[in-house]
Write a structure and sequence with these properties.
heterodimer; A: 140 residues; alpha+beta; 5-stranded antiparallel beta sheet; 3 helices; 5 strands; B: 111 residues; alpha/beta; 4 helices; 6 strands; 38% helix
């Protein structure tokens, strides 16, 4: 069995479903439970939606490379693109306790990525492009 | 994702199934807007068959909730919420905002 899986797709929201199927399948093959695979695909979906809508933006052609593998006891998903970089620190944490009238449902994508995974690491390089690595421990 | 709507006398039922992600959320939003554009603000979203909802889909739900409740003119209520979707709503702190019912019939009857 291969020790990693990789998918390259054009930056287009219509590809999110294909990405989700790929990530779910790879996660299951690499030993994650159904629930963990759901959580990983959710993190990947939010991450790729951000890349398509913000890093590249509407009408910009570009590619997203998604790689799934195992490092030690962790499942690792790496998402690469060549769009605009951003500062994850500048994305405000959503206020989940505020009343409906004031509720802003922004920043939830990044929030879900962090909740669904054990670790999330961004790396931005003007030459090599943007790289997001997300880690999830496999059940013993 | 598939969205079907059904109009009753006082309530509109929106059945959403499959995946609501950033690509499909606009279609879900359009279905809700179409209902509210007819000055109808009693809406039930039936989630039976909903496999996944991303933050983009949650934004549509919250926007719909705010719009229906404005001036106490209505509400947007949820029915048949699958456990995984319930977990996501809870994680986002949204479960407390919505009235939720076990079945669409219960939700429609609650208005």
């Amino acid at each position: 069995m291969p020790d990693h899986f990789e998918l390259t797709v054009p930056s287009d929201l219509a590809n999110l479903e294909r990405i989700a199927d790929f990530v779910t399948d790879a996660a299951l093959r690499l030993g994650l439970s159904e629930q963990q695979a759901f959580e990983v695909q959710m993190a990947a979906d939010e991450a790729c939606a951000n890349v398509i809508q913000h890093a590249y933006g509407p009408g910009v052609e570009g590619e997203i490379v998604i790689r799934c593998e195992v490092e030690g006891d962790e499942f690792v998903i790496t998402i690469r693109d060549h769009g605009r970089a951003f500062d994850p620190e500048e994305v405000a944490e959503p206020d989940l306790a505020c009343p409906l009238e004031k509720r802003q449902v922004g920043g939830l994508g990044l929030f879900f990525m962090r909740k669904m995974m054990d670790r999330v690491a961004f790396h931005f390089d003007p030459q090599a492009g943007n790289e997001l690595k997300m880690y999830k421990r496999r059940s013993p | 994702m598939e969205v079907k709507t059904r109009q009753y006398k006082r309530v509109d039922l929106v059945q959403v199934s499959g995946r609501v992600d950033s690509g499909t959320a606009p279609q879900f939003e359009a279905a809700l807007q179409e209902i509210m554009s007819q000055d109808r603000f009693h809406i039930v979203v039936d989630m039976q068959g909903l496999e996944y909802i991303s933050s983009a889909g949650l934004r549509v739900l919250v926007a719909g909730l705010k719009q229906t409740r404005r001036w106490n003119r209505g509400d947007l209520r949820l029915a048949s919420v699958p456990p995984r979707i319930q977990d996501v709503l809870k994680l986002a702190g949204l479960d407390v905002l919505f009235q939720t019912f076990d079945t669409a019939v219960d939700a429609v009857g609650s208005f």
